[in-house]
Amino acid sequence: MWQVVGFFDGWMNSILPAKWNPETYMPFSLPGLGLLMALAFLVLIGWSTAGLIGRTIVRWGELLLARMPIVRSIHATLKQLFETLFAQQARAFREVVMVEFPTEGQWSVGFLTGDAPMALGDELEGPHASVFVPLTPNPTSGFIVFVPRSRIRVLPISVDEAFKLILSFGIVGGVKTAKPSAAVEEPESVRAPENV
After folding, report:
1. Which tens digits make up the pLDDT trace of 32-55?
2. In the chain, what are the domain boundaries?
3. DSSP letter for each residue of the chain
């Protein structure tokens, strides 16, 4: 901790003019002042970025990137990807489910991410949902499986409990002993029987 404080204090002394440095006028040093000033500087940057000035700078930057031949295609792709991810964030990873994966009779814990893409509609019979099945012990990698909605079982646990379960190889994770509920909610016109 002292090394971190010393680093920020040294950084402040190197860039701050002596007449603005409070330690110039005091007979003792103030450890941590550089860290506080760095935090204030970061807050100021965040405030200006969120405000009108920041939005204007970001808009100018995007216009500049849009004029660069190779960079603009990469920028447009990344921007669309992040906008899609953040738009879907409110709906995705809200429900913990079990699906038969990798084979029938073997169940895996996963996260319901939405409906199966419309492009797959001709290949799939009936309503399907996309489920992300994370790998242990690295849940950032995993499989996307498209499962019939009637074969998905919603677990009565939170997303945090599911991640604990996955990261601990099934040892930890306050999993309730209640029987998993039936299938994920479907539209009335295509709802499968409850006993399936």
Report:
1. 777 787 788 888 877 776 677 767
2. 2-87, 95-190
3. -HHHHHHHHHHHHHHS-GGG-GGGSSSS--TTHHHHHHHHHHHHHHHHHHSHHHHHHHHHHHHHHHTSHHHHHHHHHHHHHHHHHHHHTTTTT-EEEEEE-SSTT-EEEEEEEEEPPGGGTTTS-S-EEEEEEEPSS-TTSEEEEEEEGGG-EE-SS-HHHHHHHHHTTTS-S----SPPPSSPP--GGGPPPTT-
